[in-house]
Write a structure and sequence with these properties.
single chain; 53% strand; 156 residues; mainly beta; Lipocalin
Length: 156
Amino acid sequence: MRRALTLILALVAATDIVLAADDTLGTWKYNTAKSKAAPGVSPIASLIVTREAIDSGVKITAKGERADGSKIDTVTNAKYDGKPASVTGSGLSWDTVAIKRINDKTLNEERSMQSGKYHTTARTVVSADGKTMTTTTKGTGADGKPIATTAVFDKQ
């Protein structure tokens, strides 16, 4: 009986570790007040990003709207191996992303538009309390000019 109880407790502990292994997972709401948009692009008015675990990576669903009324509706299935993955849908400046997981709270991304000049690197960090996720992006915008953005998300 004691051995069975020990095994059950070990499995529960292991499950908790596996489930908590990626703090970027969950549903996140874009915080317009704390974020800094790229110049020349209509700012995001509302955005919900859902990040779900898949085999060795993440499924990212983004739905929202820009200030000019244009929709954001994308889905990405990417592994954390740093290899390019397609972004399907509309409303974002990039159609390809490569993601590397640094640790439970940090990701590095390379974003690009295959048929354009847009190319950026992004670093995503989840706060120690797990309530805020911040993505800082630097690179070249679709117009070929340097850009830098900060996107802040609140955990839902």
